[in-house]
Amino acid sequence: MSEGTRKDGIVSGRLGPDQYVSNFGDAYPPLNPHEALVAADRCYFCHDAPCITACPTEIDIPLFIRQIQADNPKGAAKTILAQNIFGGMCARVCPTETLCEQACVREAAEGQPVKIGHLQRFATDTLMETGTHPFTRAAPTGKIVAVIGAGPAGLSCAHRLAMHGHNVVVVDGREKAGGLNEYGIASYKTVDNFAQAEVDWLLKIGGIRIETGSVMGRDYTLEEIRTDYDAVFLGFGLSGVNSLTLEGGDGDEVGDAVDFIATLRQTTDLAALPIGRRVVVIGGGMTAVDAAVQSKLLGAEEVTIAYRRDKSGMSASEVEQEHATSAGVRIVYNAQPVAKTPDGITFEYTETGPDGLRGTGETFTLAADQIFRAIGQSLTMPDGAALDIERGKIRTDTEGRTSLPGVWAGGDCALGGEDLTVTAVAEGRDAAESIHKALSA
Amino acid sequence: MADLRSNFVGIKSPNPFWLASAPPTDKEYNVRRAFDAGWGGVVWKTLGLDPHIVNVNGPRYGVIYGADRRVLGINNIELITDRPLQTNLDEIKLVKRDYPDRAMIVSLMVPCEEVCWTDILKQVEDTGADGVELNFGCPHGMSERGMGAAVGQVPDYIEMVSRWCKAATRMPVIVKLTPNITDIRYPARAALKGGADAVSLINTVSSITSVNLDEMAPEPTIDGKGSHGGYCGPAVKPIALNMVAEIARDAETRGLPISGIGGITTWRDAAEFIALGAGNVQVCTAAMTYGFKIVSEMVSGLSDWMDEKGYGTIDDFKGRAVPNVTDWQYLNLNFVTKARIDQDACIKCGRCYAACEDTSHQAISMSADRTFEVIDAECVACNLCVNVCPVENCITMERLPAGAVDERTGRVVQDDHGDWTSHPNNPGAVAAE
Ligand SMILES: Cc1cc2nc3c(=O)[nH]c(=O)nc-3n(C[C@H](O)[C@H](O)[C@H](O)COP(=O)(O)OP(=O)(O)OC[C@H]3O[C@@H](n4cnc5c(N)ncnc54)[C@H](O)[C@@H]3O)c2cc1C
Ligand SMILES: Cc1cc2nc3c(=O)[nH]c(=O)nc-3n(C[C@H](O)[C@H](O)[C@H](O)COP(=O)(O)O)c2cc1C
Ligand code: SF4
Fold first, then answer.
1. For B350, which of A46, A106, A109 is closest by C-beta distance?
2. For chain A, which domains are there?
């Protein structure tokens, strides 16, 4: 470790230039063709395979793996992309250990599932490297659909609509399209600007226009959109963050992990990005892990994740927790924050009793010069959008229809499924099918 | 410790593992390395008349891979030795002198004229070699010139050449057979009639391993064209085993010594050939794939297994499986089994279900929670589910005891033997005595 890691305070340039490059390289390097064949050979081609059911987009996994075996990785990619147009991103970011690979019969048999995620990446990379787009549009329908939010839900919806011959306008408040693929996902999962490359590739279908920097509720209302378009899909994610109040704090000392990651993702010169010597991240999900690991990669000396429940309660999977600890992050379970001290933060231990989680009264203090909260995001409804809300999300039926006629929703902002990229893709696609059905009626 | 020493038609070797006539036995350097590695004997790469033949200068091999690039089969278009006769003879003499305890057999292929054979046999005798093998097997190239498989496919020629050779030399004569023939018993009988001491089989199987779909030509491709080659390696073992068994149990050739060849890769393959009547075995592809060292595994594996089974010598188990190779018509139709699935071992892949439901007898049921169960009333005991199940011993075939009812046929299982010869559906049935 260089002396840069031991400088107190929040400073930039903790590491040498080479270290930034190697730290932010691909966390899980892609399989080479031979490794892919070896991995593919382990698939049993199960009947009515459980992995298919476990994938929110229901990719025909045994089929695509067999196509790799049979030396047809591009055909494999088409199988994947026909179900999930973000098959490339999902191959990188899906917590496969809790999805397809958990259901793999070889996981049950020997604790070693087929490497479905890696194989999916091998197939999709092979196709995308050719620069070709495997799908074509149906004859134009003359209909035009508005999609609000250019994240995985919105773009998946837009692509499917475009395939069916509809024209689509996608509007997003940010500068770039991609949603959290561009602004949220950890950089070591999506190196070489993959998120933008994937969006560009997706748009090759044609018929989709992207308008960035345009915010619903500020620049236009849902009602205006409803009148101007044949249908509307809402995929604007969760833009609010849950707040955290600490005794002794003025409200500013705890940063937002999502903002930190977004800044990091958009920074071209990582050496210019300041980070604390001792970083504490509060939370237990993917965001907490990604913020902590990337703090470490930026050169923080000590990084701790403090989570208020026990290990099994953490929404970051075991694999992600291991990823954090092997990167040198310490995870403290059963600790809830109570007060800010001049040079750190005090936690109280917790335990789970009959009435849920409660503090034990015992406390400890961690030195910290930078603190992030990663305790969840929440729905912010754009002004003027009057939709039924249930459990903090837009209420939708199984086809993604909201309480307003002509308005569909999917992804993180809508009810149903986990808040994952793959779920957003599935919901966007299914809503598109529903919209298509409605517009064809 | 089992005694692995082998005496095959009077030719002694410290173990029954010989290298077959092929690139591994092509010249002095290789053969010395082979003997140093522990091979019991070699059949020297086939000699021919001068001027020596030439080989192609492009690729000679095509290959079939299993998982992880495991070589399952190789196809070759190599011909016999491409070096002068005298060079080979000199080397054979030197090596035999230095390794007197190893078997040195010389493979031969010359045109079908008696004088060619008598001449070359004299020259081989002068080297001190222990025996000769007549190569009637090579299916490519040489056969276009009336040699190799072109002889091996005509039993009369085999008999004729064998007789010439036996008359011309005191050395044991082994006739190497081609599998590229409808019924292997005919060439074997011909070799016996001609006085041959033994047969060795199989040589390679005529084959095209693959087609290059860009060049639209078979592999290996030489300047845009390909020629059929000879196939060998693990993929041909089942063909070779059957041919060895056919000769071992044929009334006319029973007792004719056999040198077993074809896909032998481990001690177990060798033991199987010997159990089916082979007196020793020859290996080519396994050595070409893994190098000479594999003989260590073969020797130790065979020895350990023999110790475990209480076999003191090779002869103790040689041919033991031959009496159990029979014709279909004698198989016991009163032997009734049913598939049984061990639910604890089952990993729920459903392959047995797909196989039975789509291609067999719809005898496996699948529940919503992926429990797979055999329906005895439908199971014909074909064994397919056992074969496709990825978990060893998860599905087994269990014999129904006499007196039990086979739910599929409704019949009570008999404990006597009942085969097709006496079955009521057989128009030619003979009533049981
Ligand atoms: C730090 C972090 C790491 C993550 N890591 C993973 C991971 O590894 N694997 C995984 O599967 N999931 C991960 N997730 C979750 C995943 O990113 C989301 O579930 C997914 O992106 C949801 O897609 P979406 O399209 O619904 O929303 P988003 O991706 O959030 O996209 C919504 C888009 O709508 C735009 N928008 C919002 N409001 C408006 C408005 N009023 N007007 C116009 N546009 C608007 C936003 O700018 C944004 O572009 C992570 C999330 C975070 C925060
Ligand atoms: C490249 C190559 C060349 C061969 N050349 C000869 C030969 O010259 N004479 C011969 O009798 N058999 C020859 N064979 C056949 C082998 O001796 C052997 O019969 C055959 O390969 C089957 O054994 P295996 O499966 O162990 O390889 C050759 C085989 C190969 C692969
Ligand atoms: S043995 Fe054959 S018929 Fe019986 S259950 Fe298995 S596959 Fe079906």
1. A46
2. 33-128 (1.10.1060.10), 144-239+379-440 (3.50.50.60), 241-376 (3.50.50.60)
Bridging pattern class, strands A278-283 and B229-232: unpaired
Task: Read off the tokens for A353.
Answer: 């009793």
Length of chain A (residues): 441
Output the six-digit token pair for B219.
């592999």
Q: How many beta-carbon pairs below 8 A join chains A and B?
A: 36
Q: Which ligand is nearest to the CA of B42?
A: 2
Q: Decide: helix, strand or coil at residue A41.
A: helix
Give the integer Cα–Cα distance in Å for A433 and A399. 8
Q: Does the CB atom of residue B354 touch ligand 3 within 6 A?
A: no
CB pair distance less than 8 Å for B347 and A105: yes
Q: What is the pLDDT of residues A211-253, one digit of tens each?
A: 999 999 999 999 999 999 999 999 999 998 888 878 876 667 7
- Residue in B closest to A107 by C-alpha: B347
Determine the Cα–Cα distance for residues B263 and A424; give it in Å rounded to an integer.
54
Tokens encoding A273 = 């990005």
Tell me the pLDDT tens digit for each residue of B418-427: 999 999 999 9
Residues of chain B positioned with their CB less than 8 A from the CB of A108: 347-348
Round to whole Å and give the CA distance between A324 and B192. Answer: 75
> Is B346 considered catalytic here?
no
What residues make up the domain containing B399? Answer: 329-417
Distance between CA A103 and CA A52 in Å, rounded? 9
Percent of chain B with pLDDT over 90: 93
B210 lines ligand 3 (CB under 6 A): no
Contacts of B350 in chain A (CB under 8 A): 46-49
Domain boundary among B304, B324, B344: B324
Q: By the CB < 8 Å criterion, does B345 face chain A?
A: no
Does residue B361 sit in the same domain as residue B396? yes
Of the bound ligands, which one is closest to the alpha carbon of residue B339?
3
Asked whether the bond before B84 is cis by omega within 30 degrees of 0, the reply is no
From the CB of B356, is ligand 3 less than 6 Å away?
yes
Per-window interface: B 385-424 vs A, CB < 8 A: 390-391
Residues B341 and B306 in one domain: no
Protein residue whose Cα sits closest to atom 12 of ligand 1: A420
Model ipTM over 0.85: no
Work out the mean pLDDT of chain B and round it to a whole number.
Answer: 96
pLDDT for B246-303, tens place per residue?
999 999 999 999 999 999 999 999 999 999 999 999 999 999 999 999 999 999 999 9
Residue B91's φ and ψ, nearest 5 degrees, are -65, -40
Ligand 2 centre and the CA of B250: distance in Å?
A: 26
Contacts of A50 in chain B (CB under 8 A): 348, 370
